[in-house]
Structures are given as C-alpha cells and as structure tokens.
Amino acid sequence: MSTDTCYFKFIRNNAPFLATGALLSFLSSFGQTFFISIFGGEIRASYGLTNGEWGVIYMIGTGASAVAMVFAGGLADRFRVRQLGIAVVLLLGCSCLLMAFNPIAAALPIVVFFLRFFGQGMTTHVSAVAMSRWFIATRGRALAIAAMGFMLAEATMPLIMVWLKSFVDWQIIWIGGALFCAAMAPVLFRLLRLERTPQSVADQEMSTGLGGKHWTRADALKNPVFWAMAPAVMSFSGFGTAFWFHQVHFAEIKGWSHLALVSVFPLGTITLFLSTLAYGWLVDRLGAVRLLPIYLLPYVVAFILHWYAPTLVWTATAVVLMGMAGGGQNTLLNACWAEFFGTKHLGSIKSATTALMVLGSALGPGVSGWLIDSGVGFETQMLGFAAAFGFAALLLLYPVGVYQRARRK
Predict the structure, then answer these.
(1) How far apart (Å, rounded) are the C-alpha atoms in residues 113 and 115?
(2) Which distant-in-sequence residues (6+ apart) come within 8 Å of 33 by Cβ?
(3) Rounded Cα distance, 121 and 57, in Å
C-alpha cells in the first residue's frame, strides 16, 4: 500500500481525533511569534515603543510563560482533552481581547504572557500530548497530521492579516481572533464526544518507556537523556525564532527588499509540509529514536548558507532546508519523549520540554538583538547558530545509544 493511501485510510479511520489535534495546533497561532509579529509596527506605534523596548517586553512575557508551563503542563495528565483543550482555547480567546483593549504599555508584558502561555504553550502542549497518548503504533503519523494545523495557519494567516489591516484597525483583528476561538470551542466538544482513551481505562492503555516503567517528570529530569535532548529543543526554537524575528534586518544587510525575502518563505512551508508527512511515516516504520541524530543537520547547512548568501537563491535554498528540518521537529521529538519516558506522565514531562521550547523562543530574539546592538553582525551570528545546531546534533547520539542498549537487554 502506498504512503498516500496509508495516510488517507489512517485519517478516515481516526478523523475526529486527528482533527482535534490539528485544530488545537491551528489555534495556537494566535500566541505564536509569526502571528504576533505581524502587528509589531502597530503595537510599537500605539504604545510609543522602540524596537528594543518591544523586544524586551516580548522576551519578558515569553520567558514568564515558559516558567508557568513547568507547573501547568501536568494538567494534561489529570484532565480530558475535552475539558482542558476547550478551557485553554477559551482563555486564549480572552488573551486576544486583552491585546485588543489593553490601554497602557506597562501591561503589555502581561498580555504577551497570556498569549504565549495559552497559545504557543498550552494549546500546542495539549495537542502534542493528546496525539502521543492516543496513538502508539501510528504516533508519528498522528503528530504529523496534527502539525498540519499550525502549518496551515503559518501559510495563510500572515497574508490574510496584512490584507485585513488595510481595511480595519489592528485591534479589530484581535477581537476577531477572540471570537474565532469562542466559535471553535463547541467544535472541539463535538469532535470529542467520545475520547479515544477514556479516563477509566487510561492506565491500562498507557505505554511504558525505558526499562519498561512509567517515568515521572522527576525521574526524567534526573536522567541525562532528557538534558542531552534539551539543546535541540532550545536551539531550534531560539535560533529559528531569531531568524524570523529579525527578518527585516536580515533583508536590509543583504541588500534585498523585505517583500523579496518574504517571497521565498512559501518554499519553506511547502517543504515543511512534505517533510512532516515523510517523517511521520518514517517514525512509524523505523522508529523515532533511530532518526533523531540526523534531523538537525539541514539546519546546520541552512544557517551557513544564510551567512554566505550573495543572492536570494542561496537563502531560498536555506529556507527549504529549514523546512526539511522542521518536519523532524514536529514529529520526532514528541514521539521520542513518549518512547523514552512512556505516556502515563507524558503531560507533566512534556510541560518541561515545552517550557524549554518557549524559553528558547524568548531568549533567541532578545539575545540576538542585543548582539546586533553590541556590534556582532547578524550574518556572523548565523555561523554561531550553525555551530550550535551541530553541537546539539552530536548530543543526540547519547539518547540513541541509551535506547539501543536498553532494547538489547
């Protein structure tokens, strides 16, 4: 049976559950950097902020949301997706209203905190935990399909929002985001009339991790396997976000128009879509752990190309490579957490990894901006980013070795 046929049959047989993951992934966009940055100019103008001040506010709010994720992520182990997912989406809608009606700049760190916590943090977290827990043999494909929701939002929302800004005030768009979240809550409830893993049988259906045990978060945090994977989590979100956050500056130093640079981004989105599907299929065929050491390598080459890039063609190639690596990030890591540590306490464990991801996305743009102001050119930083990804890829060899030795026992 072909890969396409397998995917279509899998989607048809599990449509409500996969749609839940994809919808949550899509809704997370209201708290993602790519969406919030669309309104960066309007936010700075409305509150009288410089680029640096807005960057610091964004870093503070995002950093605080990373801390909160450590404590809140375990809720995914205690509540059904029907309860927690709907609550998170409604609170994300309230966060959109805060952005629309906030009257003072001093409250912006709080607004950013709520958007990032309920958007990038909890909504993404609930989606990933649900897919990892509901699906075992087909976990890779489930994670891949759920990630399509985010990719759809990333591919369509920037263009739609920029177009809408030419007709209505930016605050109206945020009100529309809140209404959309409210409208999706009953859709989620309808999709989850019967959850795939009812709470009454959850314990019997939980898969175990290394050593045939159900790892707690405390166990995982004491294990070197977790920390060997941490640089991959933080570097991907940190340095990847830094590139997108400073894209205008990057275009300026390369001598290109911002529109010309943005025009190559869809190539990355297309590659990300294909890569996510491919990795989802490969995870189910070969296992996530076996693929772990290779998925970051395209990012190493991509940032070397960004540094060099005498023409836009070179950066277009780098963007394609970034999309190729993104497919592994969407599927491999989430599947590996389940394979290493099991699914019984996955929500609590995943909250720590989500916190690392959010923290990386807070530090990346802020530190990179500080380095630019300190005279370290953004192009030079690209070589540092590439080296960091190479180091993270080498560290991933350790958990692979631990997993292989455990399997041989």
Answers:
(1) 6
(2) 120, 241, 244, 245, 361, 365
(3) 17
CB-based contacts of 213, cutoff 8 Å, min separation 6: 342
Contact (Cβ atoms closer than 8 angstroms) between residue 127 and residue 150: no
Tell whether the model's pLDDT for residue 1 goes beyond 60.
Answer: no
pLDDT(189) > 60: yes
Instruction: Look at residue 242 and give its three-state secondary structure.
Output: helix
**Of 51-65, 123-137, 386-400, highest mean pLDDT:** 386-400
Structure tokens at 125: 């977290």
Q: Tokens 């990038």 appear where?
A: 120
DSSP state, residue 206: P
pLDDT band at 306 (very low <50, low <70, confident <90, very high): very high
Q: Give the burial string for 231-270 (b: 16+ CB within 10 Å, else e).
A: bbbbbbbbbbbbbbbbeeebbeebebeeeebbebbeebbe
The first and second tokens of residue 103, run together, are: 């009257």
The CA R_g of the chain, rounded to the nearest whole Å, is 20
Dihedral (Cα; 266, 96, 55, 35), 10-degree rounding: 0
- Alpha-carbon span 60 to 68, nearest angstrom: 12
- Residue 37 tokens read as 């940055």
Phi, psi of 196 (to 5 degrees): -65, -35
| H/E segment holding residue 82 | helix 81-101
Give 3: exposed, middle or buried? Use CB within 10 Å, 0-12, 13-18, 19+: middle
* 3-state secondary structure (DSSP) of residue 363: helix
Contact (CB, 8 A) for 234 and 358: no
pLDDT, residue 310, reads 93
Q: Which residue has the tokens 């019984």?
A: 344
Three-state SS string over 130-179 comes to: HHHHHCCCCHHHHHHHHHHHHHHHHHHHHHHHHHHHCCCCHHHHHHHHHH
Q: Which residue has the higher pLDDT, 405 or 76?
A: 405
